[in-house]
Amino acid sequence: MSIAKLTTSIHQALDAAFVYSEAIDEARKNDALKGKSYEEVRELILPLVASFPKYSVPLVDGQRKSAGKKVLDSTHAKYEAANKAAQRLAKDIVGKSKGQQEELEVPEHIQALADKLTAACKKYEEARRLASTAIASAFSK
Fold first, then answer.
1. Cα separation of 115 and 108, whole Å?
2. I want to staple 90 with a disulfide (CB 3.0 to 4.6 A). Which of 41, 65, 96, 133 is the partner?
């Protein structure tokens, strides 16, 4: 790929990122979405994502825990892409991205324990995943 084509590709990606950011900001201002939880936002935007021409995933009646709700048809070829898009959009609209979370003050004794866990896990492959799994397991007890 030539430098000119690479430059065009990078600029297109950056343009798309700016457009996405502006669209998310506009969506946040919409009265239908203000103050809603992630689940509520996802439920409201799901039909919009499903009807996007590049997905066109039918909505079907949910089963089990989704009973009474419309969900994406999991047998459709574009289900995974549409589902991931709905998740990402809802997360960004609600503002749960890393840069927007409130800083949480960690008590010194908790930080010391986390430092010990980190040091122990660094001896293994996938150290972060190992530590996360260990913590999740401890919370489930």
1. 10
2. 41
Q: What is the pLDDT of residues 124-134, one digit of tens each?
A: 988 899 999 99
Rounded to the nearest 5 degrees, what angle is found at the Cα of 82, between the Cα atoms of 47 and 18? 95
* Tokens 């509520």 found at: 40
Mean pLDDT of 31-56: 93
Contact 57, 50 (CB under 8 A): yes
Instruction: Tell me the domain boundaries of the chain.
Output: 3-100, 108-139
**Cα–Cα separations (whole angstroms), residue 35 to 18, 32, 39, 42, 87:** 24, 9, 12, 13, 17
**Above 60 in pLDDT, residue 98?**
no
3-state secondary structure of 71: strand
